[in-house]
Please model this.
Amino acid sequence: MKYDKNNIFAKILRGEIPCNKVYENEYVLSFYDINPKKKIHILVIPKGEYIDLDHFNATASEKEIIEFTKSITHITKMLKISSNENGYRVLTNIGKDGGQEVPHLHHHIFGGEAVGKMVV
Ligand code: 5GP
Model:
């Protein structure tokens, strides 16, 4: 599968569509989900063109992989939902059965309240 440069998150990265930004550095962008499922529902995406987690792990640099993972802890600390506070959930949908709608890798972060059952 080829990366679709016109997916919605690619447009957000290019600044063609606005987002409610939480955090940004050289490697990642994080913003609030447009249709929040919990009190806090944000997305974290790598800046590179990666379709999903498998594509990312197969082709991204070690630095990109480390920075993407570490950004979760940085962002949850910023939002005061880290393991030092009440905690949060990270979820990543991959492919058809995983329910992935946007073909640019993203982690969902849910928190700010009890997020409930793992899978419904
Ligand atoms: P997926 O099902 O691919 O894991 O999740 C895609 C997520 O992107 C959904 O939770 C959806 O609400 C969110 N989303 C889709 N379009 C936009 C958008 O234009 N802006 C923002 N901030 N979120 C979006």
